[in-house]
Write a structure and sequence with these properties.
This protein has helices at residues 22-28, 30-34, 53-68, 85-88, 92-110, and strands at residues 2-5, 43-50, 73-82. It is an alpha/beta fold and 117 residues long.
Length: 117
């Protein structure tokens, strides 16, 4: 199980802005990891709607590649959410994503449950 809330998953689109070397991109990019591992655990991804375009590209490319490898993804968007929406945006959509994230963790750490958060 892994979770990414508005996190950089493919470092290639961020290479120039973050001044990364190609070796760093290859070593630390989650997308590169997809090329070397089979049978990845389920992943939850949430994307903020008001964030840096290179970060959008990073997340979108990872989702495309992970989907092609048949990785179990739970993907949510927060159209009006800024980077760090889970801390900064006390709105219904932020709370929905936080609740779903906790449910995802509970399910994948302890197994399915009939209780609610």
């Amino acid at each position: 199980m892994s979770i990414s809330l508005y996190g950089p998953l493919d470092l290639q689109p961020l290479k120039a802005a973050w001044e990364l070397t190609e070796d760093e991109v290859q070593e630390f990019s989650a997308t590169t990891y997809l090329e070397h591992v089979e049978g990845l655990a389920p992943m939850l991804i949430a994307k903020a709607g008001i964030d840096h375009p290179a970060l959008y590209a990073s997340i979108d490319h990872y989702i495309k590649e992970a989907s092609a490898k048949n990785v179990a993804l739970d993907y949510m968007t927060h159209p009006g959410g800024q980077h760090a929406f889970d801390i900064l945006d006390d709105v219904a959509r932020s709370r929905e994503i936080i609740k779903r994230t906790l449910e995802f963790m509970k399910t994948h750490l302890t197994g399915p449950s009939t209780s609610t958060l």
